[in-house]
Write a structure and sequence with these properties.
The complex is a heterodimer of chains A (83) and B (837). Chain A is an alpha/beta fold. Chain A is built from three helices and four strands, in the order ββαβαβα. In chain A, a hairpin with a 3-residue loop joins strand 1 and strand 2. In chain A, 39% of the residues are buried. The radius of gyration of chain B is 43 Å and the shape is extended. The chains are: A alpha/beta (83), B alpha+beta (837).
Chain lengths: 83, 837
């Protein structure tokens, strides 16, 4: 499973495809206080990013790939985007 | 170029021409429905064809054309001259792209923008553009370097990245800002904008941001893309166009002027006077004034507003550094290189100062210095021209007169060496243009390591090497003749020496060509997973397929002829060998049966084993069936052991299955396998244990090109016997022969071996000769699992030769498997042992 849903934490693995976005959205809608672990994620489809940007869950760990981490930090970090 | 592409090009040309003609005809008869239909069909076909290849630029234009013509056909819009003009333009564009493809097999990336524009202009003719609704209006590409109406929001970019960008700018790279706004339904088209964005060449920084206010979480539509991407990259424009060639209408690429990087949110006009403050913003505490890196960044950031005094000082520092270098009086090996470097720096300065005559003068001086190895001339020239250069540089590249120079600007006091070093590294491309001592681009071209060669060429090479092998065998005969006939022993020895050299080379060539023809068995194995899955599904069996040693290699012909026998065997194993899950469970086995196909190389043979853990073969049933079918007689029924009995399944016409299925059971399977394997000089053996499983072992030669043959003599003629058949050669005293009924036998190594005179088998009336000790030469051969002795007159050497199949009338002679040319020019017939005994 590209996304492993634990009790209050979603763990992303490898490449998370567009098919996961729907499930992720539903899960995050149910658990507003959920955390997301991106450490072993190597890529996530734009649809998933969009869900994360809308839901703004707490990111418990960022991707280990520095390039992806930079992308996600700038995209998910509200400091950069006051909007 | 591949044939498909060639065909596409010739068809496209035809179609474009046809479209042009039809458009012309329509001018005269604008309402002719037939013509319009024809036109639509042509464009539609052309579009479909272009879609076969990755030519999105062409497909996009044709698609727009097709849409437009579709509307014309349905009478929604009328044919007009303007429409014809645009379509003709579009066809010209398509032809231009065809020319691109013909030249380079791809469309130049720069066409993407034109294509988008062309498609937009066609769509503009449609009253209600069906596609345009989703596509944002196509913006014309920005003219690089012109100030855009709105500056890219560079402030988003973190400071450290901006610094890095500046540094790269300074090294001659161009910066581009990309705003990528994917269409809303791009997810449905299989696009992943984030992935495209991450793959952007030369990416320095990127971020995704909502292109519209994001809805509350509860109302979010996951399948609608609401993000846009901002990217900062150092890749050249062509590369970016190439990268975004599928979505040229969704990206906007703006060339970033390095000085914008320091401006952050301010407009350049407003802030030009305060530029001095921008410098420290970038430096932000870590770079002191003495830091050359900072100084150079500052120079890059403020190319226009630097005061002339500061510019003069900087140039002076650079020139002084060159002087210092020239004044060094050591004479290192790399002195010439250093001189060239200094020359390159000075040339660049002269060009920057815009003094062309000084530059040409400098080139002459430099050439002389290089010729004599003396720096003094250049040093003198530099001292003379220094002030001239500085003066020109300041006025030439200085700020416009309207800009007030800053009185409080601090003069740069960076170390001269650092400045010189930078000046040297700054403009390497320019330096190479000036003096051609850099490496040329062609030097670094590396081609593909793989060659694709027609098999016929390899076969020809192999035949030639085969002939070489044969003709080299003539040398020993020659040596023999030199000694025996002409009595020159010395020459004979020399010929033998030469022969050994040629022999070695020929062997290596043969080996090399064999390597070329080698192919991995995975070529055959790769079809099995699917085959096994389909058949086992059909039979309701659970089978796990294990493939091993797929990398084992053998000659291409061997591998190819292996495919059919293997499929037969696998089918048989699945049908007869492995049981259904219920039966397996009842036997106490795992429900899932295992079928293993293993390939391995053993000496000069490839061994393939097909093992299943099914029910095995019952030798008793086989024996009975074979007896019923008349394949064996009663005596054999008693005599043969289980092992031999199991191998009877290779006999023609034997089937053990009670029911004939569409998979197997017709009794043709296994004997076909055997003959196919034997055709390529292979052997096949079966081992089976009742209830445990079956193992079929196929052994094949690695290559069938060269056959090892033993030459025997009989009635004054020579014959070849393949070494695969030869067991041993023995001499048997005539006295120890025994006659049982009509046949001769002898006891050899404790076994009774039937003996047959080769002469009798071949219909030669002569009787076998004996040697002086009254012994007969017996060649023990193995044929179909049986060993028997051939009585011949004498044994000769063993040689490797290329067998040629018998042609014409001779092809009907089954006693011979082929013929071969000997070194002395004679023809050797190769016996087909299995047929004659």
């Amino acid at each position: 499973m590209p996304i492993e849903f634990k009790r209050n934490r979603a763990v992303f693995h490898d490449v998370v495809s567009v098919e996961e976005a729907e499930g992720l959205l539903e899960w995050l809608q149910k658990k507003p206080s959920a955390k997301v672990d991106l450490a072993s994620c190597s890529h996530l489809h734009t649809a998933n990013l969009q869900v994360l940007m809308t839901a703004r869950p707490h990111i418990s760990s960022w991707p280990e790939i520095p390039e992806l981490r930079a992308w996600l930090e700038t995209s998910l970090n509200p400091k950069v985007h006051p909007s | 170029m591949n044939p498909l592409l060639e065909q596409f090009l010739s068809e496209s040309r035809e179609f474009s021409q046809g479209i042009g003609e039809k458009l012309m005809q329509l001018e005269d008869a604008p309402t002719d429905q037939g013509l319009i239909n024809e036109l639509f069909r042509l464009v539609h076909t052309l579009k479909g064809n272009s879609g076969l290849f990755t030519f999105p630029e062409m497909t996009r234009v044709l698609h727009a054309g097709e849409d437009l013509l579709g509307l014309v056909r349905n009478g929604q819009i009328a044919y007009s001259r303007e429409l014809a003009d645009r379509l003709l333009d579009a066809m010209d564009f398509v032809m231009a792209m065809c020319a691109d493809i013909e030249a380079t097999e791809q469309i130049d990336a720069s066409r993407a923008q034109d294509s988008a524009r062309m498609a937009a202009s066609l769509k503009a003719l449609m009253p209600t553009a069906p596609i345009a609704a989703q596509v944002p209006a196509v913006k014309p590409p920005r003219i690089p370097s012109a100030l855009p109406a709105e500056l890219p929001p560079l402030a988003e970019v973190p400071e450290s990245t901006r610094m890095q960008a500046l540094r790269q700018c300074h090294q001659g790279e161009t910066l581009h800002w990309i705003c990528y706004l994917p269409v809303k339904d791009c997810f449905f088209q299989g696009d992943d904008p984030l992935f495209s964005a991450r793959q952007t060449p030369g990416l320095l920084w990127g971020s995704a941001r909502p292109s519209e206010p994001l809805p509350p979480l509860a109302e979010l539509d996951t399948y609608r893309c609401m993000l846009e991407f901002h990217l900062l990259t150092t890749a050249p424009l062509e590369e970016l166009n190439e990268h975004f060639r599928y979505v040229p209408d969704q990206v906007e690429i703006v060339r970033v002027d390095p000085k914008w990087l320091s401006l952050t949110e301010e407009r350049p006009e407003e802030s030009s006077a305060d530029i001095a403050q921008a410098g420290p913003v970038i430096a932000h505490g870590d770079a002191g004034e003495g830091n050359p890196l900072f100084a150079s960044q500052k120079e890059a950031a403020e190319p226009i507003d630097e005061s002339s005094r500061e510019r003069a000082a900087a140039l002076d520092a650079i020139l002084s550094a060159q002087q210092q270098i020239l004044m060094l009086d050591d004479r290192p090996d790399w002195g010439a290189g250093r001189l060239k470097a200094v020359g390159a720096v000075l040339l660049n300065i002269a060009r920057a100062a815009g003094v062309q005559e000084t530059a040409s003068e400098l080139e002459a001086v430099l050439a002389e210095c290089l010729a004599t190895g003396q720096n003094s001339l250049l040093l003198l020239w530099l001292e003379d021209s220094k002030q001239h250069l500085i003066a020109n540089y300041v006025t030439q590249a200085g700020p416009p007169a309207s800009t007030p120079s800053k009185p409080d600007a601090k003069p740069s006091n960076r170390p001269a060496e650092a400045a010189a070093a930078e000046a040297g590294t700054d403009k390497p491309p320019a330096a190479e243009e000036g003096i051609k001592f850099g490496r040329r681009a062609e030097d670094s071209v590396t081609g593909s390591r793989i060659l694709k060669v027609d098999q016929a060429k390899i076969d020809r090479l192999m035949n030639l090497i085969g002939e070489l092998v044969v003709s080299k065998n003539a040398l020993p005969y020659l040596a023999q003749r030199a000694e025996a006939h002409f009595g020159v022993r010395e020459l004979s020895r020399e010929i033998k020496g030469e022969y050994s050299v040629i022999n070695r080379i020929a062997d290596e060539m043969q080996d090399a060509i064999m390597q070329v023809r080698m192919m991995a068995v995975s070529f055959v194995f790769q079809r099995f997973p699917r085959l096994v899955r389909d058949i086992s599904r059909k039979l309701g069996k659970e089978v796990q397929l294990v493939l091993e040693g797929e990398q084992t290699e053998a000659d291409k012909n061997i591998i190819e002829s292996l495919a059919d026998p293997l499929i037969h065997i696998v089918r048989n194993s699945l049908d007869h060998g492995l049981e259904t899950p219920e039966v397996r469970r009842a036997c106490g086995k795992r429900e899932t049966g295992t079928l293993t196909i293993r390939a391995a190389q053993e000496a000069d043979r490839v061994v393939i084993e097909i093992t299943d853990d099914g029910k095995g073969i019952d030798p008793a049933i086989i024996k009975r069936k074979a007896y019923e079918k008349g394949l064996i007689d009663e005596a054999a029924l008693e005599r043969i052991d289980d092992r031999e009995a199991v191998n009877l399944i290779f006999a023609a016409g034997l089937s053990t299955a009670e029911v004939i299925s569409d998979l197997s059971g017709r009794g043709v399977g296994m004997d076909v396998v055997r003959s196919a394997v034997e055709k390529i000089n292979g052997t096949v053996v079966i081992e089976s244990e009742l209830g445990k499983g079956t193992k079929i072992r196929i052994s094949l030669p690695l290559s069938m090109a060269v056959t090892q043959v033993m030459i025997v003599e009989s009635d004054g003629q020579l014959f070849g016997v393949p070494m695969d058949n030869v067991v041993e050669t023995v001499r048997v005293p005539r006295s120890s022969l025994r006659a049982i009924k009509q046949s001769l036998t002898a006891v050899l190594r404790g076994r009774i071996v039937p003996l047959k005179p080769l002469n009798a088998l071949l219909g030669i009336s002569a009787t076998p000769r004996t040697n002086s000790d009254d012994e007969l030469a017996v060649l023990l051969v193995q044929a179909g699992g049986e060993v028997l002795g051939l009585l011949v007159d004498g044994f000769k050497e063993t040689i490797g030769l290329i067998q040629k199949p018998l042609g014409g009338f001779l092809s009907g002679l089954s006693a011979y498997s082929g013929s071969a040319l000997m070194g002395d020019g004679s023809v050797l017939m190769i016996l087909n042992i299995r047929e004659i005994v």
